[in-house]
Amino acid sequence: MNATVLEIIKEAGLTDPELAAELHKIYEATRRFEDVEVALEEGYIRDPMNMCEPASAAGLPSFLGAMGIHYFRPDVLGITETEPRVNGTGVHTDFRNPAILIYEPQNDGSMELVAVENLVFHEAWHAAGNESPPDFMGYEYFYMINNPLTDFDEAHMFEPHYDLHIWLYRKNPHGLLLPFNPAVSCDNHMADMHMD
Length: 196
Known about the structure:
With 196 residues, the protein is an alpha+beta fold. Helices cover 19% and strands 24% of the residues. It has one domain. The chain is built from five helices and eleven strands, in the order H-H-H-E-E-E-H-E-E-E-E-H-E-E-E-E. Strands 1, 2, 3, 6, 7, 10 and 11 form a seven-stranded antiparallel beta sheet that branches. The protein has a two-stranded antiparallel ribbon with strand order 4-5. The protein has a two-stranded antiparallel sheet with strand order 8-9. Strand 8 (135-136) and strand 9 form a beta hairpin. The radius of gyration is 16 Å and the shape is globular.
């Protein structure tokens, strides 16, 4: 069950009132996407690889949890190619209009919104004249790059990029802005496929 955004902000221990206010504005701007059909109508598409991403898929401990299924806006990400890895020109960082929505599949086949995310491609970000990684109100995005020496794809089939999740729809006991959430599960992945 989703917690209220106020509970999530409070439990995150945020002491900056400006940050708390911005998180609430992001919630208000994105809450219509709790209905996945609204997201689809507005141009978000379900990850074509249909991955529900547990931390173990990136070679991380399973206790970190999962991300869920990504729905993204190709135009906002500026997708230019998908093979051999996804690449683009996207440098969008406005969480009130996120590039990516993350849903957890439910056992009845429905999708529950759990987080919003922005992703910017490393090459495009620095080509635009940025010297430092992107940040959200002082919180730096995570840098993701695949390590060819491992059996895992740490960058999830994307070219090197920066990304940041905000878990405004599902409490994350490990942190509001961390990539994986132990309160999110992929156990019902594929159960939702009959709904498409």
